[in-house]
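A quick word before the example. In earlier lectures we treated sequence and structure as two separate objects. From today on, think of them as two lines of the same record. Here is Adenylate cyclase type 10 written that way.
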Amino acid sequence: MSSRREESQDRAIVRIAAHLPDLIVYGDFSPERPSVDYFDGVLMFVDISGFTAMTEKFSTAMYMDRGAEQLVEILNHYISAIVEKVLIFGGDILKFAGDALLALWKVERRQLENIITVVIKCSLEIHGLFETQEAEEGLDVRVKIGLAAGHITMLVFGDETRNYFLVIGQAVEDVRLAQNMAQMNDVILSPNCWQLCDRSMIEIERIPDQRAVKVNFLKPPSTFNFDEFFTKCMTFMNYYPSGDHKNLLRLACMLESDPELEMSLQKYVMESILKQIDDKQLRGYLSELRPVTIVFVNLVFKDQDKAEVIGSAIQDACVHISSVLRVFRGQINKVFMFDKGCSFLCVFGFPGEKAPDEVTHALESAVDIFDFCSQVHKIRTVSIGVASGIVFCGIVGHSVRHEYTVIGQKVNIAARMMMYYPGIVTCDSVTYNGSNLPAYFFKELPKKVMKGVADSGPVYQCLGLNEKVMFGMAYLICSRDEGYPLLGRDKEIKYFMCTMKEFLVSNCSRVLMYEGSSGYGKSQILMEIEYLAQGENHRTIAIALTKIGFHQNFYTIQILMANVLGLDACKHYKERQTNLQNKVKTLLDEKFYCLLNDLFHVQFPISREVSKMTTLKKQKQLETLFLKILEQTVKEERIIFIIDEGQFIDSASWAFMEKLIRTVPIFIIMSLSPFTDTPCVAARTIMKNRNATYVTLGALQPKDIRNKVCLDLNVRCIPKELDTYLVEGSCGIPFYCEELLKNLDHHRVLVFQPMESEEKTNMTWNNLFKNFSRPSEELKILTPNYEERSEEVCTLASGVRLKNLSPPASLKETSLVQLDSMSLSHQMLVRCAAVTGLTFTTELLFEVLPCWNMKMMIKALATLVDANVFDCFRNGKELRTALKHNAASCKVNHRSLSLRPGLGIARDEGEELHELESEVIECHVIRFCRPVMQKTAYELWLKAERRAMHLKCARFLEEDAHRCDHCRSGDFVPYHHFTVDIRLNTLDVDTIQKMAKSHGYKTEEEITFSKIETPKKSEIFSENLSPEEIREKILSFFDVIITKMKMPEEDIIPLESCQCEEIVEMVIMPLAHHFLALGENNKALYYFLEITSAYLILGDNYMAHLYLKEGERLLKMLKDDRSWSHTFEAAAFYSLKGQVCFNMGQMVLAKKMLRKALRLLNRVFPYNLISLFLHTHVEKNRHFYYADQQAQESSRPGKRRLAQLYRQTACFSLLWQIYSLNYFFHHKYYGHLAAMMQVNTALETQDDFQESEEEEAAGDSSRLVFSQSSSSQPKDSERQRRPRGAVQDHPPRIFCGGFGPALCFPHTAMP
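And the structure line, produced from the sequence above:
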């Protein structure tokens, strides 16, 4: 039975029905639209408080690990409980409206009395749900319930593609008013409901000055049996589960497939939901905290009571609203009766529907809807509220009844603006600032106190797109700051200066175009150009266009000519008219003056000749006049015309400019974003003109981003971690950098403090490195007073993890636009890649992609590389080189080279894509072009799916998580894997032995061990030997070991070079982060220590220090772990810490760390002279003991012991070196003891050389070759290294046990 039920619930019709009430699922409606149906019933309106505040809390969370999924789990925990109660008591959930729901009990009128009792019982039980539950996430959930009963009218309306329904009538109005009267945990009965109910069953409380009443409790007679009463009542409910289905919550769960019914129901569900149902994806997939634009439309009717009258008005409005929204990818999410009117909740930016210029489109749509609906004669008032921001978009409810809805403060703000500012289109400040519409399209309104909105910020009225444009409004506002230079654009400015000089001395036009995507700083360049272009013999006209200009014929030339004719300063049309007459009287016959009326808003009398002219002839006449005026003007002074946002130039203006540059010497400079569509013929002609130059703007260099940050924050320097985060996150785009800084400031991540002199700074582990990035000398030259005005440094708040910060909403929105424009398969690839990390290999991506073949993946990758989603590199070295410098900041193209492939001179697209595919095949490393895209795509995953993906990545990567073949594999921390159980992929012993044999290894029985020949009696530390003799003895001792450990020449595998650095970056680092995401902190700590050790071997002390900090955070989290493996990890942590301190010349810190490590390894190094001499005596005895043991058959140390002994040896070696560097008399004794303890530890392991090799080969399938003793020399790079005061570039080495990077004594005098 249960399997049958599961099968039925997976049917498409059942999944569609879950989004709809029984009223629609089982309804039989007329195909006419609108159609009306009448019935009686009881309505319940449940308002749930607390969710909006919680949505805000989640939407402003700092880190990526708190997102929509946690929110939807909490929401549905509460809402599903309410839905379940309603369904159990026979109710039908009509609508979910954000954090409220409307339920119906549809019965005949004579059954209303009994059903009201059932509904009151249900309401009281809903309140009971929340009295005992503890609040989650600080959420205080309380409900308010209103009940009403009586006649109800249902209206069905829509167009060919979508249907909507409404319940209207007095009962609907009553239930809303009843709920409004309710306080927390109240149940309020409307006056009609109180009249119709069984009053003997209900204890009520009167509400002052109201006919509605408050329910206290039910008071049935002692003989009353509610179960029997309820069963009897449910017989009147047509679709209440009974008989074989009595255990079901809802009968619609057992719907049989019916193509006709399914087709009918689909029209009530949003298209994006239907796509998910067709793909059989989980309903949680669409749940996101997402930046959207809300448009709330409210229609108030002249005659509210007549359903037929308002039905046709709603139908007309709905058809128009749908057609307007469809153009800009907006959708109607809900339609409901709201405060004496019908409200449409429209949303722009749903998943898969994100489009560029969303806010502008929303405002355009709002004005269009307002204009149309205001003309519908049955509608009295149209009010529209528009708000933009992050809201929760997702499916809320129960598994058998749910809906896709939006919840958030921005939804509330839009609704409240709609009600508190009736009869106009209003918007919030976020919409106003993001609209890209000129300021004169808006009017700031007086603030009002709005219910449920603490602070909405400024509210603006959108005046519409048909207002008359006043001259001067479109001029480029120059906010150039003398103390804030234009950074990183020297080449672009120099090119302008050269071109301007050529123009001023020649007699021909010049066109200079700067193209760059939004955020690259085009407007800043033009502001600088306007400043530099000022001169005595030429006039500069600078304007900034908006999208509105594109739709107004001749608009750009209108602004140009208004300036040339001096009309921009005129305050009245009569003044403009007088100026025009004076300017054109010699160039134009008076009867043609009226041609200028519409263009310049003047009122010359319209002549008979002009009234007979066609539109085309009028425009030609105007163009001729303007050319004459400009020809006359340039004889007196040259004109430099600067246009910001040139992509918004209208086609008529392009055509005029094309003629202008051929006939009049003029210098036109413009900035423009890449054309989304093919530009007009005139625009293409200008671009191909021999005097036109097209400059493509690129990213700023890292040093310029650093300079910008220091200037913006007004500080002397910033933390390196912040520098890396901003350089990497901004990708050299100034706007991205600004948004990231704003986000950090919003979350109070940045801390400012006075700058301290280096002498005052006490050296600690945290300030071991000069962890600050300073601006370049270039900035000091450009801003001479920079150091005088900035006396502070910027630091980060403690505990902040920049890498895990959620991206700012503005940047996330940009990424979502790009993501939603991709095909579903490409979206899936990007989302899978996001889990693998910012940088990943093609092999790893192929491993995690579900059901893809290699050809599909390569083709998709090539397309995404072409779309600038990914960059590809042949190897890690190529990637590291690319990350040091961004691409060139600009690229200059002459004439037709400026045109894109789509503009007429393209090569075959298929050929280009094929070349890219070949390039991707050769590449091994892929990286997201922009980290914000990776973070945005990562946040779209559900928690369970994300975890499964991380686990898949970790399983794949751990096979390669060891040193390269050149270094004979092995751990970076020698024998590390012996100490900690971190393997995900485990094999049984038989399989491992077979694998070992297949690689040519022998089993233990087949191996004959040879003993190392070492002195049987120790004479190394004879008391009569001098320090020089002791030194020679020790070196001779290690010469024997080195000789025995030396590999035959044939065993050495010749490779080109060491690949350890690439393994660290492409395997071990990602592996650590995958385990962090999985919550496996012990495994993550293991790999962070491996990374640290690797960077020490590579000579990069700064990176080692950085990852030790990550390890330190995990150690604190695991402080309650008392296991031996955790103790070893702590010891390894402190020994590596000591090594970093030693390399940086901080010997006191190094000694402190090494002593801590030894204590954890059960060895103590003395602090005072008495203890020193006691330890020396003990160690001498130990030495004699180990030497005597050599002559006998002694048991070998275990694997864990081997790792422990190696750590001890490493610590003693460093301590010996530290004391050797100091010339105080007593330090030579400490050095002597450290050397002796080191030798004793080595002696404990030395007869285990070959046995350990076999154990390691048989013990781990991924390490079939034993670890070779090696250490890579530090590389010449810009990484931070130990100061010259330290003797060596890397720690000393001594061979102990025959594995790993070992330690030996340097050739310096022993104490």
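Notice the following. Confidence is low (pLDDT under 50) at residues 467-472, 896-907, 1001-1020, 1247-1311. We will return to this example when we discuss secondary structure assignment.
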